[in-house]
Amino acid sequence: MNTDRRILVGATTTLLLAGAAGKAQAQGQETPSARAVPQGSPGEFNFLHGEWRIAHRKRRDGAWDVFEGEATCWTILNGIGSVEELRIPARDFSGLGLRMLDVEQRIWSDYWVNAKSGVVTTPGTTGGFINGEGVFISEFDDNGANVLVRGLWDRITGSSHRWLQAYSRDAGATWDDDWIMEWTKVVAP
Prior knowledge:
Strand content: over 45%
CATH architecture: Beta Barrel
CATH superfamily: Calycin beta-barrel core domain
CATH class: Mainly Beta
Low-confidence stretches: 1-34
Distance between the termini: 33 Å
Radius of gyration: 17 Å
Number of domains: 1
CATH topology: Lipocalin
Mean pLDDT: 84
Strand order of the largest sheet: 1-2-3-4-5-6-7-8-9-10
């Protein structure tokens, strides 16, 4: 990631976390559970529509595991929703991503369903787009330690984009990338 983009992503993450901390403090909460996120608009996930080949890199036990996948994505409900069917045939794995815009709140939520369980992960990861990059942050408790998870949609063009997942154990001061997906659109013959 070049320096300007690293600064932009860092600043966006800081703004999301600062908004969360201020709101949580005002509500008397110890842990931020709601964040100030950029206001969303219909169509921001339209770039996903189509057929994709995906080069995955997933960190496992300190090493990068490299594998291939594919996805079919649809824009639904006039751009306030996006559905992704992810398939990784070599791993006998599939899942469904659902991104929905709360039209009144103007906030995107990203949900996941693993085909092995059929259960929708809730709450969804919330976020939005700033300067063409989508930043989505959630948090979870890991044996008493607050861990942040950031999903980043970037390098978005008409034929490719990237998704990065990273974790932070220090309230967003540093991030550890753990999953990188390079998407390339399949062009119909």
